[in-house]
Model the fold of this input.
Amino acid sequence: MHDLSNRKILLVGGAGFIGHNLAFKLKEFGAEVFIADSLSVNNYCYLMSHRAKNPSSELYLKFIKERLDLLEEKHIPLMVLDARDYHALSRYMDDIKADTLVHLAAVAHADRSNKDPYSTFDHSLRTLENALDNTRSSKSTIKHFVYFSSSMVYGHFPPGGVTEETVCDPLGIYGALKYSGEKIVIAYNQVFEMPYTIVRPSALYGPRCISRRVIQIFLENAFRDEEIVVNGKGDDKLDFTYVDDLVSGIVNVLGNESAKGGIFNLTYGESRAISDLVGIMKKYFPKLKVKYVPKDGLTPDRGTLNIDKAKKSIGYAPKYPLEKGIEEYINWYREFLKK
Ligand SMILES: NC(=O)c1ccc[n+]([C@@H]2O[C@H](COP(=O)([O-])OP(=O)(O)OC[C@H]3O[C@@H](n4cnc5c(N)ncnc54)[C@H](O)[C@@H]3O)[C@@H](O)[C@H]2O)c1
Done:
């Protein structure tokens, strides 16, 4: 059990799906947690300005409201701030004097990144550079910088999956920018000796997500009695990860000195085919209809991210195989819809 009670942790992009769940977990472990987020990318302001175009926007606004209510209830302050603004971020960092910065801000979706490379660069790399440069400033109190990368840095997975040693060859804008981010973080360490950790999560799912990745889309279609659409033949594999496993892994990263200077795959550690996911969903929704369509050329062939390094060196211990994670997620969703 890690004690983070003497820690002050700033989450940049912390009002997003992963960030708010991470904030709750860090608070449970005693940390003082601060969030800086513009609420503009895949969040409240975006939903408000695209209400008419998005049939789920009313439901997703309720998810966001619950995120914000829970943050307030748990006394986790949220500073609405655009991290592309160097000086705004600088002022906030001077003000709170955190010892740890976790950088999550991004356009966190491969398809959206390919459609809008300019703003993806801005929200992902500009915000990262601002956070790094404020961290290396003489006034900075940050002793550990954690960067959220992605499994998309690997590109097509070789058979048997990837370890952190696998050569990265990203495909498309999202993976390329995530990989550039890793290189910049490492360069700041080389030049300024800034302690860092890079984490590579994959295919997250769980409460209050509005990103509409495959599990969420399937689940919402199932609740609406609509068919689900599988890209490809259903044999594509993903290392689906329940958000609670990832955020527990970040606690291990923050609680272990040995995590500094490391890159870690943080997933469940076992890929599952989309057809497995469909099978699990059918147990909950027996009448579920499935349609298969051709896959696009920009989705890499993926698989398992080996998590042995995180298990051995920081004691990472994921607990949610797909069956258990889906059960948790469906139960949460059902309860939410009753509110
Ligand atoms: N969710 C996944 O499956 C997954 C997988 C691998 C990696 N990641 C990475 O994890 C991180 C978090 O992902 P998520 O799923 O929580 O995404 P999300 O879209 O839910 O959250 C991103 C947050 O960043 C904020 N943000 C974006 N630009 C900003 C800016 N200029 N200033 C301040 N805040 C800004 C957004 O408002 C949003 O709240 C991202 O870096 C993403 O690339 C996510």
Residues 224 and 313 are 44 Å apart (CA to CA).
